[in-house]
Each structure stands twice: as C-alpha cells, then as structure tokens.
C-alpha cells in the first residue's frame, strides 16, 4: 500500500518512523526540526508548471507560467493540444517544452496516460512511466511524484541538494551520484519521499551555515 504525504501530520508520522528505524537520521532531525510539507498543484497543470521551470531561474519560470495561465483559462490539456506552437512560443516556451506539453496533452486525451493513478503505483514504476515521456527526465518525474501527487516513496536521487545533504549527513567522502543514491535510500522504503523532505531541510540548514552548491533546477 502506497503512503501518501497529503498532510503535515502524515509527513511528521513518516519522519518519526524513519528516525526510529534509522538512528543516523536522529541528529539530522535534531538539526532541522520537523520539515514542512511541500505541495504543488496536481494533474496536467502540475506537470506543466514543472516543465516550464526546467533549467530556468525562479523568476523567469514564474513569468512564463503566469503568461500561460492567463492565456489559457482554464488551463487544461485539450487547450494546449489545440494551441498553435507559435502562440505557445510567444508566451516564452521553448520548442522542446512545447513538444513535451503537447505530447503529454495528447497522451492524456487519448487515455494512454493517467497522472492520477501514478500516486498509487509503486514509486519506481510511476517514475518509469513518467520518464518515458519526451522531455520528462528523472528529476522532473520525482518532483511531480513528490510534490504534486504526494507519493510517499518517491526518491529524487538526482537532486543535487539532496545529494549534498546526504553526503554531509552520512559522513561520505564525496557527493554521491544519482546511481549511488539508490542503494543509500533502500532502507528508507517505503518512506523515501519523507526522507527527501528531511534531507532538503538539512540542506537548507547547511546552506545557511556554509556556501554549498545550489540545488538543481
């Protein structure tokens, strides 16, 4: 059964369970305090919002997303599917992002993709489904699963902030790669999503204390 991080209470229960199971996390929680739940809009709008922000500054991404929302009200996959590419381009989307959003919109319209059911699938299977879509890489898939669907076991192995926090928190000699992050988190299943929230909180503590690299977009 998939745990959903759909409330602050659910996240706190999951974090307490993790700390009980893995004593190495106790000093991490002591340093951070209980992490706050981070949620974003679900469905097509949620994944479109993340795609808009790929490899852009926060300000640029927010500006583009604001223009898209103003241009398409309601913002739904059928509207994006029917929209002319040149119109989307004038709103600030790159050709690659237009291709991604239109493909997702077509898949949703044809019933070949159902974003809602991913919340109840095994995290690795849901991740694999999303990364088969053009323009959806591992980081985008994990952020969508975690923040839009509240998937309790999604694990953002490629996130630089989580990698750096794990390196410092577990006393590793070097920052682990995305591949190395997978076995490191194996013992936190099925609560890896809660562990990610904890490690993000720890990264923020470290960043205030010392100048660590910025997280990935």
UniProtKB/TrEMBL annotation:
SMART domains: ENDO3c (SM00478)
Keyword vocabulary terms for this entry: DNA damage, DNA repair
Protein EC: 3.2.2.21
Alphabetized Gene3D superfamilies for the sequence: 1.10.1670.40, Hypothetical protein, domain 2
One Pfam family this sequence matches: HhH-GPD
TM region positions: none
Domain HhH-GPD: 52-203
Catalytic activity from the UniProt record: Hydrolysis of alkylated DNA, releasing 3-methyladenine, 3-methylguanine, 7-methylguanine and 7-methyladenine
Annotated PANTHER family: DNA-3-METHYLADENINE GLYCOSYLASE (PTHR43003), DNA-3-METHYLADENINE GLYCOSYLASE 2 (PTHR43003:SF13)
Protein name, entry field: DNA-3-methyladenine glycosylase II
